[in-house]
């Protein structure tokens, strides 16, 4: 399960910048899709100049999130790659470390709960902003961090209300 989550996170991390909730015009049929052998919680469809990442509910009956990705700045699309990542749970530090993405991490919820050696080294080497717990998040610090992607959590399609406070920010969710 950890490797499935890590693969999904790596795809989102390298492919997301801003999630915009709009209707996005696609050609009706993708030109290709990612062949997935083991993981069943997501799908990736390729179009001529963009990608679509779908995250499914555990029973695959519902699509929990749709991300539309492009290397170019386009309205309604997430620009890729992500260069600045915030993690709203120290739990995700292990995934960030496993993917070798420590250098992109610019903000974490609470530094004292980070157990990853490589992220702790990054915190010693450079300033990584501490945001506080989700219930008491420092909104100014999060805005000042100028993140491309905010990594948060959800449960069965429900997410924290924080995304509503940042309509121009991208959120990637772990379930």
Describe the fold and architecture.
With 175 residues, this protein is α/β, with parallel strands linked by helices. The protein has 2 domains: 2-78, no CATH class; 85-174, Nitrogenase molybdenum iron protein domain (Rossmann fold). The protein has 5 helices and 11 strands; from the N terminus they run H-E-E-E-E-E-E-H-E-H-E-H-E-E-H-E. Strands 6, 7, 8, 9, 10 and 11 form a 6-stranded mixed β-sheet that branches. Strands 1-2-3-4-5 form a 5-stranded mixed β-sheet, with helices on one face. The radius of gyration is 16 Å and the shape is globular. The model is unreliable at 4-9 and 11-23 (pLDDT under 50).
Name the poorly predicted regions. Answer: 4-9, 11-23
CATH fold-type name of the largest domain? Rossmann fold
Percentage of residues assigned to helices: 10-25%
C-alpha Rg, in Å? 16 Å
Molecular shape: globular
How many domains in all?
A: 2
Mean pLDDT: 79
Terminal Cα span? 11 Å
CATH architectural name of the largest domain? 3-Layer(aba) Sandwich
**Number of strand segments:** 11
Short synopsis of the structure:
By secondary structure, this protein is of the alpha/beta class. It contains five helices and eleven strands.
Task: Give a topology summary.
Blueprint (H helix, E strand, L loop, with lengths): L1 H14 L16 E2 L8 E5 L4 E6 L6 E8 L7 E2 L5 E3 L5 H6 L6 E4 L8 H9 L3 E2 L8 H6 L4 E7 L2 E2 L2 H4 L5 E4 L1
Can you give keywords for this protein?
11 strands, alpha/beta, 6-stranded mixed beta sheet, about 180 residues, about 25% strand
